[in-house]
Amino acid sequence: MTMERALRLAWIWWTVFLLTPAALFVVVMWSLVFGEGTTRPMLGQVFFLVSLAWLLLATPGAFLLRHHVYRSYWEGRSVDPESYLKGMITIWIAPEVGGIIALVGVLFSGTLLPNLLPAAVAFMLFAPFWPTGRAMVDTVGAADDDEVFRHPR
């Protein structure tokens, strides 16, 4: 796989991951506005706790897994395109799933809060990590060299 193809695929994945919760949010809001109006707050709390637990455990785990996949980057070499794509998809899936769990909780419980909060946090965790491809082209030096080392995005 070439760097250009990996970056193109990364942008496609990132855009799909960006639009999926947005479309689900529209469906959720439509059901809240035009739905039957039955609320189940206890079910909402269960989804809230599940999405919060997911975000607290899976997001740091995804970054640790990407750290392992980007092993060559930490040694001062660039990352191969397949590893770049795997690493980025890994850190995108964790908040994506947590946000979808929270939005499904809004849908099933019939109330916006508290489930809208983990969905917003998931979006804030996901959005800044758009694909740049820098890890594939930059050779940044060893991680212990503060003058040339940069964290990958």
Radius of gyration: 18 Å
Taking pLDDT < 50 over at least 5 consecutive residues as the criterion, the unreliable ranges are: none
The CA-CA distance between the termini, in Å, is 20 Å
Mean pLDDT: 89
* Beta-strand share of residues: under 5%
Q: Which percent range fits the helix content?
A: over 70%
Structural class: mainly alpha
Overall domain count: 1
Sketch the topology as an H/E string, one letter per element. HHHHHH
Helical run tally: 6
Outline: elongated
Largest sheet: none
β-strand number: 0
How would you characterize the overall build of this protein?
Keywords: Membrane, Transmembrane, Transmembrane helix. The chain crosses the membrane at residues 12-34, 46-65, 85-106, 112-130. By secondary structure, this protein is an all-alpha fold. It has one domain. Helices cover 71% and strands 0% of the residues. It contains six helices and no strands. The chain has helices at 3-34, 41-69, 71-74, 81-109, 116-126, 134-137. It is elongated and about 55 Å long. The two termini are 20 Å apart. The model has no long low-confidence stretch (mean pLDDT 89).
Question: What's the arrangement of secondary structure elements?
Answer:
Blueprint (H helix, E strand, L loop, with lengths): L2 H32 L6 H29 L1 H4 L6 H29 L6 H11 L7 H4 L16
Helix pairs in contact: 1-4, 2-4, 4-5
Question: What keywords describe this structure?
Answer:
transmembrane, 6 helices, transmembrane helix, 71% helix, mainly alpha, 153 residues, single chain, membrane
